[in-house]
Amino acid sequence: MDSRAQAEAVIEAQVRESIEQTGGMPDGKSLEWHGADVEAFSRDVLRVLASGAPWDEQLAAIRAARDLHIIEPIARVEIDLRAADLADDFATEGRMAHARLNDFQQYGVAA
């Protein structure tokens, strides 16, 4: 996995965790501010609840709607804003780890 893909995965996981744990983002701003389509999510949830489907199917559909209308749009915005910087950080850390490994292999100690 290259550093960009790694950065995107980390950001998406952070967004998902924040929304699943607290129902929002750490900065306290609204989900709409971060790019979520809460109105579309609400429509989908109401449609699912009115369907009369078994509870486990309703829950799965609500989670899919949450992912589609809330988590994925916010993750895309956050990735656009932060992925390049985070990827650079990962690449720098990777180069430093590689240099330490080379030092260890060459000298028997890591710098």
Structure description:
The chain has 111 residues and is mostly helical. 77% of the residues lie in helices and 0% in strands. It is built from 3 helices and no strands. It has helices at residues 3-22, 38-50, 55-107. The longest helix is centred in the last third of the chain and has 53 residues, at 55-107. The protein is elongated and about 70 Å long. The two termini are 26 Å apart.
Morphology? elongated
Give start-end ranges of low-pLDDT stretches: none
From the alpha carbons, calculate the radius of gyration and give it in angstroms: 20 Å
- Number of DSSP strand runs: 0
Strand percentage, roughly? under 5%
- Major sheet, described briefly? none
Helix percentage range: over 70%
Total count of helical runs of at least 4 residues: 3
Mean pLDDT: 85
Distance between the first and last residues' Cα: 26 Å
N-to-C series of helices and strands: HHH
Decide which structural class fits the backbone. mainly alpha
Short description:
This protein has 111 residues and is an all-alpha fold.
Give the SSE map.
Elements (H helix, E strand, L loop, with lengths): L2 H20 L15 H13 L4 H53 L4
Helix pairs in contact: 1-3, 2-3
